[in-house]
Write a structure and sequence with these properties.
This protein has about 300 residues and is α/β, with parallel strands linked by helices. The chain has two domains: about 5-110 and about 280-295, Nucleotidyltransferase, domain 5, CATH 3.30.420; about 125-275, ATPase, nucleotide binding domain (Nucleotidyltransferase, domain 5). Helices cover about 40% and strands about 25% of the residues. It has helices spanning about 45-55, 90-100, 110-120, 170-175, 175-185, 195-205, 210-230, 245-260, 280-295, and strands at about 10-15, 20-25, 30-35, 60-65, 70, 75-80, 100-105, 125-135, 135-145, 145, 160-165, 170, 235-240, 270-275. A hairpin with a 6-residue loop joins strand 5 and strand 6. The radius of gyration is 19 Å and the shape is globular.
Length: about 300
């Protein structure tokens, strides 16, 4: 394999809907690209298609961010809730054989937190709590840019934390893109929307059901954060993932509701920000982690 420092490092963030790619060279990010995720194929075809995406890039190493649980050495996929056909895949070894690169796997929430802590909206924060909201829901805590690893290389399974008042459900069921669109439909909104971007556009056009859905999203997010903040004690919170593109519609409500919920919390209410790297936080953090680990 080529030495990781001999060329650039690729960051690849595999989500349930899209694969984000970029190149890290000398501390600068370039060649950003987003393509649909090959979510409908088996392990062999998935690896084939990922190799086709990575091989043209001028790199010697890659960090691959994945939406789920990895083994202790970050070489093998244990479980991906949105891509279950990849469970058990020795992805790092397969890619290394094909590409002759050095490969590091990382949980997508950790990767997003590293990207935001070092190059994005959380650069001045010592303790950063990062939530990725998109096809799924993940969370990570970094201390001086390094992820805290409690179980399966993550800070914990935040997606299963129950929220939602009396009818409590796992946070992912309510805050993921599917959950948000489902709550919109229950408010009498259109039965079929292609995604949360369409819901963002409806809110911008003044659709009341869309506006109410985003308001409720902010309040549910604050309910989750009111549980996490006293436990993890972050200096600030960054919201990333695909849903963060609509942050102007739900973050103000989340900030108000979190201040109200943490009124008696002695450390005060930390600031909530949208991701500075937007949808590429995970890819950036994966590249940074791979470069630091593999060189």
């Amino acid at each position: 394999m080529r030495h990781a420092g001999a060329a650039g490092t690729v960051g690849c963030d595999i989500g349930g809907s899209n694969v984000k790619l970029l190149l890290l060279r000398g501390g600068r990010l370039s060649r950003r690209q987003s393509v649909p995720c090959p979510a409908d194929c088996g392990q062999k075809e998935f690896v084939d298609r990922l190799v086709d995406l990575l091989r043209p890039l001028p790199a010697a190493s890659a960090g691959i961010a994945l939406p789920g649980f990895l083994d202790e050495k970050r070489r093998k996929i244990l479980r991906l809730s949105n891509l279950p056909q990849l469970d058990g895949l020795h992805l790092a070894a397969r890619l290394e054989r094909r590409l002759k690169w050095n490969i590091l796997l990382e949980a997508d929430s950790n990767a997003g937190a590293v990207g935001e802590a070092r190059l994005g909206a959380g650069r001045e924060l010592k303790r950063l709590l990062y939530l990725s909201i998109g096809t799924g829901l993940g969370a990570a805590l970094t201390i001086e840019g390094v992820p805290v690893r409690v179980s399966n290389n993550t800070v914990g399974h935040v997606a299963g934390v129950p929220i939602g008042g009396q009818k409590r459900r796992g946070a992912e069921k309510l805050l993921s893109a599917r959950g948000i669109l489902g709550r919109f439909r229950k408010r009498g909104g259109r039965s079929r929307l292609p995604g949360t971007l369409a819901l963002f556009e409806l809110a911008r056009d003044g659709d009341q059901a869309a506006l109410d859905t985003w308001l409720e999203t902010g309040e549910l997010l604050a309910e989750l954060l009111a549980i996490l903040v006293p436990l993890l004690r972050p200096d600030g919170i960054v919201i990333g993932g695909g849903v963060a593109g609509a942050s102007e519609w739900f973050l103000p409500a989340a900030r108000r509701a979190l201040r109200r919920r943490l009124r008696s919390y002695e450390a005060g209410c930390p600031e909530i920000r949208a991701a500075g790297l937007e949808a590429y936080a995970g890819a950036a953090g994966a590249a940074l982690s791979a470069r630091d680990t593999l060189i």
